[in-house]
Design a protein that fits this description.
By secondary structure, the protein is of the alpha/beta class. The chain has two domains: 39 residues, no CATH class; 252 residues, 2-enoyl-CoA Hydratase, Chain A, domain 1, CATH 3.90.226. It is 49% helix and 16% strand. It has 14 helices and eight strands. Strands 1, 2, 3, 4, 5, 6, 7 and 8 form an eight-stranded mixed β-sheet that branches. Helix 1 runs antiparallel to helix 2 and helix 10 packs across helix 11.
Length: 311
Amino acid sequence: MAIYLDFENSIKQIDEDIASARIKADTHAVEILEKELEKEVQKTYKNLTDYQKLQLARHPDRPYAIDYIRLLLKDSYEIHGDRAFADDKAIICYIGYLNERKVVVIGEQKGRGTKNKLKRNFGMPHPEGYRKALRVAKLAEKFDLPILFLVDTPGAYPGLGAEERGQSEAIARNLYELSKLNTKSVSVVIGEGGSGGALAIGVADRVAMMRYSVFSVISPEGCAAILWNDPSKQENATKAMKITAEDLKELNLIDDVIEEPIVGAHRDKLAAATALGEYFIKSLEELDKLSDKERLDKRYQRICSMGAYSE
């Protein structure tokens, strides 16, 4: 059953009318209603607020990393464990073929349904998850395989056990190691990119965001609680923080915005996966033209160009 957000009520009503017309076999009514739906979709989604884009980024039906992997990769094989402590289910690593090219995909997985969400720790990795990601990235470097990172997390897990096992060190280690990793890499925010939990697999030759994804140092609820002592002001915080794909592209913090379907990736997963796959392949073709030194220099320069300071 489709889940509709508050601002999608008019679309929901037309969808229900179309379903009713189909039951009655009224093809003429279906044709008229589908044209009306197309107009309503354009009207609704072309004027989204930043907060509505945040709601889409968190939509429960939005495709997760495993959905993209299943739609894009052939002959895929999962790689487990950090070879030190455990196999963190919030980070998934696969090797497989994309358009006849062998690639490695490393992603953060939120999980659907109570049982799966608990298994995936709601997409919040422990330090062993980030160490698994780094181990697999080093494996890709060894065999000169390109890497696709899929970012989708509310943040790294802040629990006592995670802190005891070196959560901040694991994230910092990934930032350092991935910045000088000698293989082609592309990182894409597919949903919610939260703080250091996202940055830990967000260092790459190319960094992009899906149209309705967000990338922030803190959740809007957390920001509102700190600034105004009122988490309910999350809508104001979302607008002030500039966390949408368009905002980050304008600020030169990401390279590209991937045009997922205008109705959202949750309504057309295949089209979203196709757009993501095409972007990855196109990026690899452009990176193939560079020598290792040129590619690493460009990565270093783009990292150093972030932010601003004055003396």
